[in-house]
Amino acid sequence: MKTLINLLFTTILVVVLAHFMPGVHVDSFMTAVIVAAVLGLLNIFIKPILVIFTLPVTILTLGLFLLVINAVIILLCDELVTGFAVDGFLWALFFSLVLSFCQSLVSGLTDKN
After folding, report:
1. Which segments cross the bilayer (predicted)?
2. Using one digit for the tens of pLDDT, what is the confidence trace for 40-85?
3. Which terminus of the chain, N or C, has fewer Cβ atoms within 10 Å?
């Protein structure tokens, strides 16, 4: 149930952020649902592999390279999902930063531990 709620919040955030960011485009709400699901799957399966392969660079940059990895995940989602477009690396970086920040705010508000 918690996973579905997170998927719904991520979908809403993708739609809202695409509305306010001129470099991010989402065709429909259903596309945003697919984007949220694909982002979740990429974060589960691909991101850990990228983190392991880039561990020396991540350590050298004191973890800032993880922002680049997040942007690459967004660009990969752009390639996989029809109807979702990001205009470049900087927009992907900015989108990933704002999306992660908003997701952490929503997670903090919904978790009652």
Report:
1. 28-46, 53-76, 88-109
2. 999 999 999 999 999 999 999 999 999 999 999 999 999 999 999 9
3. C
Please give, one letter per residue, the 3-state secondary structure of 40-100.
Answer: HHHHHHCHHHHHHHCHHHHHHCCCCHHHHHHHHHHHHHHHHCCCEEECCHHHHHHHHHHHH
* CA distance linking residue 68 with residue 53, whole number of Å: 13
Q: Give the other-Cβ count within 10 Å of 75's Cβ.
A: 18
Which of 8-12, 35-39, 40-44, 107-111 has the least mean pLDDT? 107-111
Cα–Cα distance for residue pair 6/106, rounded to 1 Å: 9
Q: Is 26 left (phi over 0), alpha (psi -120 to 50) or beta?
A: beta
